[in-house]
């Protein structure tokens, strides 16, 4: 589930976070001082279909990021998480809530949060974990998420279908999410 190592440009480099040696070389060679970790399995439904791959990618990839950050004494690590870790807790979610994930994707993210907190406390690392809600916007390659799925359905000339009807969701525009990450990175 990681990406290839092929470089797209001078400023964008790709590597598979499941390849720990490649990650260490990248951090060392490029004198990285902080990591913004956004990689991993991110589709809830895919986690339902292939839980083993979701756990492997998310947990192993994050462990590699954390360990590389520890070994190279990075200044800061930002690990994107999700509000889904709270499960069916009362909204609005509060940081003091105990996570109650139920599905493989959200459980993998809760595990990642705990791993990151462990590294922060055990090794004195500066790790931040923003928990985002449903992000939408240009560039979304998945047609499994509600907004991109609805847009594709309309473009294909079909009427969007509603199911359930009682759910309330918050959505976060991609520019707001990336703005948040840039702000905490500074």
Structure commentary:
- It is globular and about 50 Å long.
- Strands 1-2-4 form a 3-stranded parallel β-sheet, sandwiched between helices. The protein has a two-stranded parallel sheet with strand order 3-5.
- With 186 residues, the chain is an alpha/beta fold.
- The protein contains 6 helices and 7 strands; from the N terminus they run αβααββαβββαβα.
- The two termini are 29 Å apart.
- Helix 1 (20-29) packs parallel to helix 3 (51-71) and helix 3 runs parallel beside helix 4.
- The protein has one domain: NAD(P)-binding Rossmann-like Domain (Rossmann fold, 3-Layer(aba) Sandwich).
What distance lies between the first and last C-alpha atoms, to the nearest angstrom? 29 Å
Would you report the number of β strands?
A: 7
Strand portion, in percent?
5-15%
Helix percent reads 40-55%
CATH architecture assignment name: 3-Layer(aba) Sandwich
Structural class: alpha/beta
What is the 3D form?
Answer: globular
Strand order of the largest sheet: 1-2-4
Domain count: the total is 1
* CATH domain class: Alpha Beta
Please tally the helical runs, counting DSSP H or I stretches of 4 or more residues. Answer: 6
Look at the structure and name the CATH superfamily: NAD(P)-binding Rossmann-like Domain
Q: What are the low-pLDDT stretches, counting only 5+ consecutive residues below 50? A: 1-7
Order of helices and strands: HEHHEEHEEEHEH
As for the CATH topology, it is: Rossmann fold
């Amino acid at each position: 589930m990681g990406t290839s190592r092929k470089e797209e440009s001078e400023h964008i480099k790709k590597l598979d976070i499941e390849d720990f040696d490649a990650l260490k070389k990248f951090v060392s060679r490029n004198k990285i001082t902080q990591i913004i970790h956004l990689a991993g399995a991110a589709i809830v439904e895919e986690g339902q279909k292939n839980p083993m791959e979701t756990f492997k990618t998310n947990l192993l990839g994050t462990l590699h990021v954390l360990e590389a950050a520890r070994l190279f004494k990075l200044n800061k690590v930002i690990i994107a998480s999700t509000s889904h870790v709270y499960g069916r807790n009362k909204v609005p979610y509060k940081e003091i809530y105990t996570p109650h994930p139920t599905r493989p994707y959200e459980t993998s993210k809760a595990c990642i949060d705990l791993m990151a907190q462990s590294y922060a406390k055990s090794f004195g690392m500066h790790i931040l974990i923003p928990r985002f809600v449903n992000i939408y916007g240009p560039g979304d390659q998945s047609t499994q998420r509600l907004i991109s799925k609805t847009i594709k359905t309309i473009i294909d000339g079909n009427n969007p279908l509603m199911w359930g009807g009682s759910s309330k969701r918050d959505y976060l525009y991609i520019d707001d999410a990336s703005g948040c990450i840039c702000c905490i990175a500074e």
